[in-house]
């Protein structure tokens, strides 16, 4: 049933029926009633849903064939994915990874402190990735050519910054720089300075920098990156 699959989509996205109906300009309770009672949904309403929710795969919605998200169907056509897994990582067949807007959530620190209060821009679903807590867009060129501005990094939060660093791995981190939050992606290596770590860029035009560990306020291990390739 189309209504049953639509209910699955609404649940997966975490929408309330009221918010979903409101976004369509539909009457209150019209969608929730159809879903709960297994009733049909008018073609004009379906067209409206598909025009507003562009990630919803119309073939799956109408027939049940394929995957829920359109992105899953054409992912390999216009995106490239690199994974940076540890030997101890176990890949998951599927997971919904929230994509956040760093500026909208006011930085990594509040995002990591309470993800439940933050609204993602969208969800990313890529099979056979290690467990990830979230994803954000990269800015800057410090990790170029491995990462470039506009790429997406998928990460796993580190709770114990002092004791859970895997030396030489790539991290998304937030630092306190004279009272301002500075967010970057760097390799973290051991420093000769006691109480510090060395931040190393992929871009050879950027110098390595020793930073006091106490200045790192949020830390996440980069598990994968996504680059959107323009198709002409």
UniProtKB/TrEMBL annotation:
Entry-linked InterPro entries: LexA-like (IPR039418), LexA/Signal_pep-like_sf (IPR036286), Peptidase_S24_S26A/B/C (IPR015927)
Entry annotated with the keyword Transferase: no
Residues annotated as domain Peptidase S24/S26A/S26B/S26C: 104-219
Pfam families: Peptidase_S24
Domain of life per record: Bacteria
Keywords noted in UniProt: DNA-binding, Transcription, Transcription regulation
Name of the protein in its database record: Helix-turn-helix transcriptional regulator
Species per Swiss-Prot/TrEMBL record: Flavobacterium jejuense
């Amino acid at each position: 049933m189309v209504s049953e699959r639509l209910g699955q989509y609404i649940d997966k996205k975490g929408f309330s029926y009221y918010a979903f109906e409101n976004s369509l300009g539909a009457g209150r309770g019209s969608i929730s009633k159809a879903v709960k009672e297994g009733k049909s949904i008018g073609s004009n309403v379906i067209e409206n849903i598909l025009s507003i929710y562009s990630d919803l795969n119309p073939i799956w919605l109408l027939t049940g064939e394929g995957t829920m998200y359109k992105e899953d169907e054409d992912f390999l056509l216009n995106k490239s994915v690199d994974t940076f897994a540890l030997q101890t990582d176990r890949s998951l067949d599927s997971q919904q990874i929230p994509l956040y807007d760093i500026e909208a959530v006011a930085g990594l620190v509040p995002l990591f402190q309470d993800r439940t209060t933050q609204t993602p821009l969208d969800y990313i679903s890529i099979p056979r990735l290690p467990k990830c807590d979230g994803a954000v867009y990269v800015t800057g060129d410090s990790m170029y050519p491995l990462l470039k501005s506009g790429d997406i990094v998928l990460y796993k939060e580190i709770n114990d910054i002092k004791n859970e660093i895997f030396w030489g791995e790539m991290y998304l981190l937030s630092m306190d720089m004279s009272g301002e939050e500075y967010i970057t992606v760097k390799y973290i290596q051991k420093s000769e300075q006691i109480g510090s770590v060395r931040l190393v860029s992929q871009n050879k035009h950027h110098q390595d920098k020793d930073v006091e560990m106490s200045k790192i306020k949020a830390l996440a291990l980069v598990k994968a990156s996504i680059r959107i390739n323009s198709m002409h």
